[in-house]
Amino acid sequence: MQFDNSYARLPERFHTHLRPTPVSVPSLIRINESLATELGIDPAWLASREGIAMMAGNQLPEGTEPIATVYAGHQFGHFNPQLGDGRAILLGEVLNDQNERFDLQLKGSGPTPYSRQGDGRAPLGPVLREYLISEAMAAMGVPTSRTLGAVTSGDVVYREQAEPGAVLTRVAKSHIRIGTFEFFAARQDTAAIRLLTEHVLTRHYPDHTGSDNPAFALLNSAIQSQASLVAQWQGLGFIHGVMNTDNMLLSGETIDYGPCAFMDTYHPNTVFSSIDNMGRYQYRNQPPIAHWNLAALGHTLISQLAQDEKDAMRLAQEAIDQFPVIYESAWYEMMNAKLGVPSNTDRSMSTDFLKLLEDQKVDFTLAFRSLCDLAEGSTDVQDALALPDATITQVFDPKEPRFEAWLSRWRNNLDDGQILNMKQHNPLVIPRNHLVEAAIASAVYEEDFEPFHLLLDAVTRPFESNTATPSFILPPRDDQQVTRTFCGT
Ligand code: AMP
Ligand code: MG
């Protein structure tokens, strides 16, 4: 592995140098062979005793420079000036053979100066959840942190009850958050903000490194990448659950798979997280919350945007005001691709479809996927999805008059070129919450990891119909529904 630890070279106030706390008996759950290969890491080495020792934090390879990074953040709208990697340690930055840079981070690797009351550890359940959902997201083409592998620790972690502990190896383009900027802005450390701005531009937006106004370029780039990211979430029915500013990366990758979940039946008010009492982060709020978070980022850059504060405010406002426009256009483009219609199709084609799904309480994923088959000439939804009889009503009722009208209007707008790509925008298999929970329960309570492995294999081939079995495709029966998720920190 080739390391070049640029973040560790930033001044001392950006992080704390420390090593992971070893675990008792590390045991491999799984490694991600294809990701390892992409990073230039030999999968056989990663699965070896030494590789497992690294993923457990027990023994680090040469070239690593472990640190915990500091940040702040708005949590559910309230500013917390002091957060940081409380249960994560950044081992270093790996360069692959294309010279691309990736953070290698352990999650659940022991306490740090930022752990507050926490133990720095991760229970097995949340580790498996993150593995499944982050890799499903990657397979669906969504920018995201990845999972290189996971191990059990042999130690017990105490939450509401005693649970087996685990450590996840996370890979991301960086772990720099809006909250990282907020940490320094709250301390009026403008030198740090300047360094961080340059660092992020170099790593993530290199086309803008020579910009006259680096902070303005950074803000605009972050706005673009967040708008595009959240549009993709909306298109998949993904609900992040904790869109705090410390959980939003400047790189535009999805991070922090805590209480996140995919929606089964479509409803814009859907919320899963047990701690989101007010529904702040419900499905329909994700775009405006991203906008709010970017305004927080804009605030941290005031000292950099212009010499005169009024000018700086004006520039920040100008950039932030563009978010809804950029988001709308990303959303519209995504919806047209999902529907297989040309890019100039009336917006109501999308919004009417969603309204129908809402009124008929239809499964979001299967509704869109069935359109792919209908577009390819199948006249029957049930046929198209090759599903057993009883499930047809769980998709939708194409004979309902309003639906029929929509379908015929849609058929008239279908675009041959777009039809070919429709399936790539409409997954058949998503990590449905009831399946994720069942896989976790087997592993945690019965030490049976087989359901986890099978589910991971299925969700990392989201678009293929020939490999998926009905149990991975179908929405939950009423008695299988899991409507609450927990951070599990
Ligand atoms: P999260 O809700 O996962 O974004 O975490 C919010 C903050 O709590 C972050 O600063 C974490 O590092 C910290 N934290 C979460 N769980 C733990 C834990 N088990 N031990 C120490 N710190 C934690
Ligand atoms: Mg977090």
In short:
The protein has helices at residues 33-38, 43-46, 49-56, 124-139, 178-186, 190-204, 214-236, 286-300, 302-305, 309-321, 323-339, 348-360, 364-375, 381-385, 392-395, 401-413, 416-421, 433-446, 450-459, 470-473; strands spanning 2-3, 15-17, 27-31, 67-75, 78-84, 88-95, 101-107, 122-123, 146-158, 162-172, 238-239, 261-262. With 489 residues, the chain is α+β, with helices and mostly antiparallel strands. The strands form 3 sheets. Strands 1, 3, 6, 7, 8, 9 and 10 form a 7-stranded antiparallel β-sheet that branches. It has a 3-stranded antiparallel β-sheet with strand order 2-4-5, with helices on one face. Strands 11-12 form a two-stranded antiparallel ribbon.
Give structural notes.
The protein has helices at residues 33-38, 43-46, 49-56, 124-139, 178-186, 190-204, 214-236, 286-300, 302-305, 309-321, 323-339, 348-360, 364-375, 381-385, 392-395, 401-413, 416-421, 433-446, 450-459, 470-473, and strands at residues 2-3, 15-17, 27-31, 67-75, 78-84, 88-95, 101-107, 122-123, 146-158, 162-172, 238-239, 261-262. It is an alpha+beta fold and 489 residues long. Among the domains are: 7-172, no CATH class; 341-420, no CATH class. The strands form three sheets. Strands 1, 3, 6, 7, 8, 9 and 10 form a seven-stranded antiparallel β-sheet that branches. The protein has a three-stranded antiparallel β-sheet with strand order 2-4-5, with helices on one face. A two-stranded antiparallel ribbon has the order 11-12. Strand 6 and strand 7 (101-107) form a beta hairpin. Mean pLDDT is 94; it is low at 388-393. Residues 83-87, 114-115, 118-121, 242, 246-247, 256, 258, 487, 489 line the site of adenosine monophosphate. Adenosine monophosphate (AMP) is lined by residues 83-87, 114-115, 118-121, 242, 246-247, 256, 258, 487, 489.
